[in-house]
Amino acid sequence: MHQFTLAEIARGLADKTFSSEELTRSLLARIQQLDPQLNTWVLKGGALGAVTASRQAARLKSATGPVHKTC
């Protein structure tokens, strides 16, 4: 999923092609794959990121109102 544009990611999330948790896990896996080459200084909270994405998805699913429907 790392090759997707932001518009493609937004569309995939809206169409439920993939969940925010799947997206987060995919991007964290990509970071882990490239980290030995890049030697990044990024704090990677993999499990926490996935849990947060899952909770946020649940919030959006239960939200009402015009702003929430655009997500």
Please tell me about this protein's structure.
The chain has helices at residues 6-14, 20-38, 46-62, 66-69. The radius of gyration is 14 Å and the shape is flat. It contains four helices and no strands. The protein is 69% helix and 0% strand. The chain is mostly helical and 71 residues long. Helix 2 runs antiparallel to helix 3. The chain has one domain (6-69).
Q: What topology does this entry show?
A:
Layout: H1 6-14, H2 20-38, H3 46-62, H4 66-69
Helix content range: 55-70%
Average of pLDDT: 78
- Terminal CA distance: 18 Å
Largest sheet: none
Content of β-strand: under 5%
Number of continuous helical runs: 4
Q: Find the structural class using helix and strand composition.
A: mainly alpha
The total of beta strands comes to 0
Radius of gyration: 14 Å
Q: How many discrete domains?
A: 1
Tell the overall outline: flat
Residue ranges: pLDDT <50 for 5 or more in a row?
A: none
Output the helix-strand order.
HHHH
Keywords, please?
71 residues
Summarize, please:
The protein has one domain. It has 4 helices and no strands.
